[in-house]
Specification:
By secondary structure, this protein is of the alpha+beta class. 48% of the residues lie in helices and 18% in strands. It is globular. InterPro entries: Inosine/uridine_hydrolase_dom (IPR001910), IUN_hydrolase (IPR052775), Ribo_hydro-like (IPR036452).
Amino acid sequence: MTVCSEFNFFSDPEAAKIVLTQLEGPITVIGMDPCYENALTWKEYDRLRETKSKVNDFLRRIEEKLFQKLRTDMGWEKYVPCDEFAMAVVINESAVVTEFKEVYATVEVKGEYTYGMMVVDWGRMLKRPNNVRLVTKFDNEEFLKMLYRPVNWK
């Protein structure tokens, strides 16, 4: 959404901050770096959506206008499947996550340029306990196997 924030955190940074700083449970966040590093070409995206199914038909319909704009008007060279990465981690984390860091993270809610940015305390300056498992590397080959595996939706 901006140079510093992704869609969900930008849309409601106050809620994202509450989740990161007050939820008492394990929180796994996939950093944007591995998402961009493992982005799909538009040809791969088209291949993903070419299979005929109710799910793909639905996804094609809801994605069509936005992705056309991303491809042509905004010049995005690749499809960044953040939601698909998140689901892959939920389904089989050990297969797709090759590295993560235990960190303290919060969300900026006041910045002019950083509104909605996840702020990671890499230098441990805040002296707060770790609250996030931040995925930093992904096994793209395993991810693609999961992504292209046929699903039997009933």
